[in-house]
Amino acid sequence: MKIGTMLIHNSAAKEGHTGALGTPVFQTSTFDQGVSFRENAPGEAPVQREFDYARSGNPTRKALEETIAALEGGAKGYAFSSGIAAVASALGIFSAGDHIITAEDIYGGSYRIINTFYKRWGLEVTAVNAQNIDEIRRSLRPNTKALFLETPSNPLLKITDLGAALAFAREAALVSIVDNTFMTPILQRPLELGADIVIHSATKFLGGHSDVVAGLTVTRNEELGKRIYAMQNGFGAVLGPWDCWIVQRGIKTLKIRLEAQQKTALFLAKRLLDNKNVEAVYYPGLENAEGKAVHDAQASGPGVVFSFKTKTTAQALRFLGKTRLAAAAVSLGGVETIASYPVKMSHASMPQAERERLGITDTLIRISAGLEESEDLIADFEEALL
Ligand SMILES: *Cc1c(COP(=O)(O)O)cnc(C)c1O
């Protein structure tokens, strides 16, 4: 079955008792276990209910977890209360004294939990330029346990060669983790490229409507699934049933939203390239984009997010204040166009020197193209750039 069909026909598609087209919201914290205490008729096996307490499992959550596992082609799926809870839980399977290698330009919130919490708890971390596979190789230590990647990167859309990096991780017996939020299982399939764990902020494209905060994790095998489940159940950052239902509803239209929004992103990126107040545009959909060949080989589209630099800081600030159709906001992946300002938003917690080294300047604006008409968007953008 193709993935577009799996968005519609999946674990949550039909409810067994009534035939309703969708798993109901099981808004309950606990499940009656009385049946397991009932005296059995001779020869009758004791009844064991599947669910006992909703932190440990809930039917609405289970349907979403099975859906994301199927979409990514993995063994097990887990739904968390946010994308960052999914990241934190994946890193939580390691121990003090373990070393992990991360890309230096991962999501700002991931950077923050690694640097403020995990280092304090004794995890050793090396952040590398993951565009350079030799840098990843050189960072290997005897106690290295994991490789954490994100491509295209945020906010400069830099590309990591997943095939090469994940092959190295396998060779060195590392657990490889890929944050696939920007691409979704439609455009990029990390498990097929060799990853062990895939993470999504479902707040973004999977939810798709800027109306829910959620995280999803998929593991290659059952063994890693058990380790993630121990974190999910132990720390309890689970996604509530209502939010699971909202994400599941968003997933149904993922393909058609992505296709339309990606087309708009390409249109806007090309037009901004010609704007006299624009210094540079960063988007793997553009012909001369750095890493385009690698991206094209590992993903089936450039995605919906791009960024650009204006010539002056004043122009960037004016754009954010003047645009009427783009929300000047954090987040991405919704049906609404969003313009974010990484230095004050997603990457505010990164030290300025580090930001500058990575090219995250105060002229940089990140765009997540929405479902509005592209002609309206470009007219608005060009006006705001005057
Ligand atoms: C937003 C985001 C996260 C964090 O997800 P939340 O749902 O906001 O907690 C992690 N990774 C990437 C790439 C993101 O864009």
Describe this structure in words.
This protein has 386 residues and is α/β, with parallel strands linked by helices. The chain has 2 domains: 12-252, 3-Layer(aba) Sandwich (Aspartate Aminotransferase, domain 2), CATH 3.40.640.10; 254-384, Aspartate Aminotransferase, domain 1 (Alpha-Beta Complex). Helix content is 36%, strand content 15%. It is built from 14 helices and 12 strands. Helix 2 (59-72) packs parallel to helix 9 (241-252). Residues 82-84, 87, 107, 109-110, 150, 154, 179, 181-182, 201, 203-204, 213, 215 line the site of pyridoxal-5'-phosphate.
Give the strand tally: 12
Q: Structural class, from helix and strand content?
A: alpha/beta
Q: Which range best describes the helical content: under 10%, 10-25%, 25-40%, 40-55%, 55-70% or over 70%?
A: 25-40%
Distinct ligand kinds: pyridoxal-5'-phosphate
* Rg (CA only): 22 Å
What top-tier CATH class of the largest domain fits best? Answer: Alpha Beta
- What are the secondary-structure elements, in order, as H or E? HHEHEHEHEHEHEEHHHEHEHEEHEH
Average per-residue pLDDT, rounded, comes to 95
- Which stretches are poorly predicted, pLDDT < 50 over at least 5 residues? none
Q: Give the strand order, joined by hyphens, for the main sheet.
A: 1-7-6-5-4-2-3
- Outline the biggest β-sheet: 7 strands, mixed
The CATH homologous superfamily of the largest domain is named: Type I PLP-dependent aspartate aminotransferase-like (Major domain)
Domain module tally: 2
Instruction: Tell me which CATH architecture of the largest domain applies here.
Output: 3-Layer(aba) Sandwich
**Binned strand content:** 15-25%
Total of helices: 14
Instruction: Give the overall silhouette.
Output: globular
